[in-house]
Amino acid sequence: MQILVVDDEASIRELLSFNLKKNGYSVETAADGREALAKAAGMDLVLLDIMLPEVDGLEVCRRLKADLQTSGIPIIMLTAKAEEIDRVLGLELGADDYVVKPFSMRELLARVKAVLRRSAKDSQSEKGREETLKIGGLRLDFSSYQAWLHDEPIALTPKEYELLKLLVTNPGRAFTRDELLERIWGYEYYGDTRTVDVHIRHLRAKLKGDENISKAIETVRGIGYRFARRTA
């Protein structure tokens, strides 16, 4: 597994590189946002600091998740900022996890393993399958892990794709926020169930080109969400 460590502090890059390599990972590093964007393609995971020169980490995250070539790469945000607004904004931009400095190396490594395990599990479960699902103008290809709306590709993050897939393949079923956290994230998320709300809101925005689809992702008051099949 190849991990890109992005931080403007040399001491942080060295510390993370040493510990990641010690645990069997291959590591590349970047000291600023531009370098990160140039090196991200082909990585299995990006550890991304928010406070970066040239291009800040949130913008790097946004660009990576908007590019179909890199949208599937998991991102763990690293930052000294503990404000909720920064954490929520990172999630809205597609980050898969969020770690506030200072953090213990043990905790960080646990999160890296969890995110990579989830990513590998997703890839294995889809490998070799040629099934597609079409609902109105929405089409999901389970073998390529991609989605289209009226034949236009949608740049979904892995979590958004899994969330959409779970909902549309279980039409009418209401999922609680806790259940969605467990099913999609696959481990105890260090946040709260608003993480689900953020991803649902982001998903609806990306599907707004077809109101029948975006509005079919319904909020079940006091419970969570469901997909109500309204399209032909």
Question: What topology does this entry show?
Answer:
Elements: E1 2-6, H1 10-22, E2 26-30, H2 33-39, E3 45-49, H3 57-66, E4 75-79, H4 84-92, E5 97-100, H5 105-126, E6 132-135, E7 138-141, E8 146-149, E9 152-154, H6 158-168, E10 175-176, H7 177-185, H8 194-206, H9 211-214, E11 217-220, E12 224-227
Parallel strand pairs: 1-2, 1-3, 3-4, 4-5
Antiparallel strand pairs: 6-7, 7-8, 8-9, 10-12, 11-12
| Number of alpha- plus pi-helical segments | 9
Rg computed from alpha carbons, rounded to a whole number of angstroms: 18 Å
Give the N-terminus to C-terminus distance in angstroms. 42 Å
- Give the strand tally: 12
Oligomer: single chain
Average pLDDT taken over every residue: 85
Largest sheet: 5 strands, parallel
**Which percent range describes the beta-strand content?**
15-25%
Topology as H/E string? EHEHEHEHEHEEEEHEHHHEE
What is the percent of helical residues? Answer: 40-55%
Structural class: alpha/beta
Shape type: globular
For the largest sheet, list the strands in their spatial order.
Answer: 2-1-3-4-5
User: Which segments are poorly predicted (pLDDT under 50) over 5 or more consecutive residues?
Assistant: 125-130
Report on this model:
It is a single chain. This protein has 232 residues and is an alpha/beta fold. The chain contains nine helices and twelve strands. The protein has helices at residues 10-22, 33-39, 57-66, 84-92, 105-126, 158-168, 177-185, 194-206, 211-214, and strands spanning 2-6, 26-30, 45-49, 75-79, 97-100, 132-135, 138-141, 146-149, 152-154, 175-176, 217-220, 224-227. The protein has a five-stranded parallel β-sheet with strand order 2-1-3-4-5, with helices on both faces. It has a four-stranded antiparallel β-sheet with strand order 6-7-8-9, with helices on one face. The protein has a three-stranded antiparallel β-sheet with strand order 10-12-11. Helix 3 links the parallel strand 3 and strand 4 (75-79). The N and C termini lie far apart (42 Å). Mean pLDDT is 85; it is low at 125-130.
